[in-house]
Every structure is written in C-alpha cells, then in structure tokens.
Amino acid sequence: MRLNWLRSSRVEDRFETWIAKRHEERVLAGQTAPSGPHPDEAFLQDLARKSKRISLADPRIDHAASCPICMSRLLTLRQEHRSHEQRLMFATAVAVCALVIVGAVVTYRAVQKSPATANTAFVSQTVNLWDAGTVRGEQPGELQSVSLSAASVRLKIILPRFSPAGRYAVAVTRNQTGTGVLAQATADTIAEGQQETLSVDLDLHRAAAGTYFLATTHEQDQAAYYYPLQIK
Ligand SMILES: [Zn+2]
Fold first, then answer.
1. Type and span of the H or E element at 79
2. Do 140 and 132 touch, CB atoms closer than 8 A?
3. I need a labelling partner for 75 at 20 to 30 A (CA). Which of 28, 110, 114, 187 fits?
4. What is the total count of domains within the chain?
5. From the CA of 14, how far away is ligand 1's center (Å)?
6. Whether pLDDT at 5 is above 60
7. Which of 89, 115, 141 is where one domain is finished?
8. Which of 115, 147, 176 is the last residue of a domain?
9. In this model, does residue 137 exceed pLDDT 60?
10. pLDDT value of residue 120
11. Ligand 1: centre distance to CA 33 (Å)
12. Ligand 1 centre and the CA of 68: distance in Å?
C-alpha cells in the first residue's frame, strides 16, 4: 500500500516536472499565448488524474501548460485529486487499523477463552438403566457394569422402565448409604419415546479410579436408587 503510494507519487513528480519544463520551453520560445482552444473539463480532470488515456503528445497538454486559466484549473483539480487520494489512503489506513484491532481482540478472546473451554470440555457418556430393577427395595441385581470416566462428564441417563417423570437428583457416591458424595446435580426428565432420560453434568475429574454408586432420587418420592459404578 505504502510502496504503491510512493511509486505513484514519484510518477506524479515526474509528470509535474515534465509539465513545468514544457511550460518553461514555451515561455523561453516566446510562445506565451496558449495554442488552440481551452480543452474541456473532462480532459483537465483526466490530466489531473494522469489518465493513461492521455498521450503526452496531445496538443491540449501544450495548451494547458501555457494557458493560465487551464493551468489554474488543472492545479485545483490536482489538489482535489490528491486530497481525495489522501482521504482514501487515510480511510484505508483506518480500515486496516480497525481490522488489526478486531483481529487482536478476537485472538485475545480466543486465548482467554481456551483454558475455560478446556475446563468445560465434557466427556459425553450414556448410562442405560432401562432394564434395571425399579421395584423399591429391590437390588438392581445383574446390572450391567456402569462405568464413567474420571473427567467432566455430560451424563445422559436412561431411567429404568416405568420411572416417573419429574425432577431427579443424581449423585455419584462412595457407598450405598448416600454418604461420600463425589458429585451431584439435578435435572428434569426428558421424554424420548417411551423412555425418560436425564442429562446432567458431573465433575468427576478428581475422582480416583474405583467402585462407586450412581444414585438417582426422584424429587417427590425421595427414594434413592443406587447402581454400582466404576470410575476409570
Ligand atoms: Zn486554456
């Protein structure tokens, strides 16, 4: 951007030098009277912008170089063109700065956010209790071994058949009496077809590997069901 600008201003300097020299030659040759009619405004504007369409051999350039009216108009147009370009340069510079700032802010936020994101990276796991016993007091006997990761677990629980809908407390405990709670959360059931499911986030990343219990307690009947659980 800056290089382009420098290059184009060098071209402009050369052009102006050429115009001045041309004028000087004409004055020295005693040709102070402009030759031909005044060129139209469009031509002067093109000239002011150094349009490539204009040949330096164009007689209107000779005229402009020696006509005070055209030269004055040309200088005004040049000035306008230059300030327009400068405004454009300025606007571009502002836009570039804004982009750099936005980029920096986005990067900064991303950097700020990444540790938090790492902390809340959940391991999604599903525990299916559909076929587990639901009669109160009945041991959920031949329960398939439920295992969870020692991590922040986003746990989906498919509740046993005939489980009532509503709010449940879910806990991971060290024993079957409900003490030694490692993590707990509450959630409302979500019906999925015939099944009632719960979705809870449990932070188990500090849990040592071993045997625990997964407890579910319905808010209303307060009966807790414990399912053997392995944390790996
Ligand atoms: Zn003129």
1. helix 68-119
2. yes
3. 28
4. 2
5. 22
6. no
7. 115
8. 115
9. no
10. 66
11. 10
12. 7
Give me ligand 1 centre to Cα 74, in Å: 10
CA 231: distance to chain centroid?
38
Distance 69 CA to ligand 1 centre (A): 5
60 and 151 in a single domain? The answer is no
Task: Give the phi and the psi of residue 147 in degrees, each rounded to 5.
Answer: -135, 140
Expressed in angstroms, the distance from the first to the final Cα of the chain is: 59
Q: Ligand 1 centroid vs 78 CA: distance in angstroms?
A: 16
Is 62:74 a contact under the CB 8 Å cutoff?
no
Distance 85 CA to ligand 1 centre (A): 26
Are 138 and 34 in the same domain?
Answer: no
Cα of 39 from ligand 1 centre, angstroms: 6
Same domain for 80 and 135: no
Neighbours of ion ligand 1 (CB under 5 A): 38, 67, 69-70
Same domain, 104 and 207: no
Ranking 12-21, 80-89, 151-160 by mean pLDDT, the lowest is 12-21
What pTM was estimated for this model as a whole? 0.47
Same domain for 8 and 24? yes
Cα–Cα distance for residue pair 45/53, rounded to 1 Å: 12
- State the distance from the centre of ligand 1 to the C-alpha of 25, rounded, in angstroms: 17
Cα of 72 to ligand 1 centre, how many Å?
A: 9
Closest by CA to 174, choosing from 113, 103, 230, is 230
